[in-house]
Specification:
alpha+beta
């Protein structure tokens, strides 16, 4: 659909960035389902210190087509 089927990608291992932030003293939140997003954002906003929200996205999800 994009780039005339000339794809470029990088496969990476499943990295839990929320845990990495926690190891540095911050608060990490991992979102695997869309219905979890609002509550995790609320928790992050109302937490002290630095926060990270790690949102898992399906790598095969199609992006909407460009309008240009």
């Amino acid at each position: 659909m994009l780039y005339k089927k000339r794809y470029y990608q990088t496969d990476r291992p499943d990295t839990n960035f929320a845990r990495i932030v926690e190891s540095f003293g911050g608060s990490g939140y991992r979102v695997k389902k869309l219905n979890e997003l609002d509550s995790k954002v609320y928790k992050a906003i109302h937490s002290d210190g630095f926060n990270l929200i790690d949102v898992i996205v399906d790598p095969w999800e199609f992006l909407p087509p460009n309008s240009y």
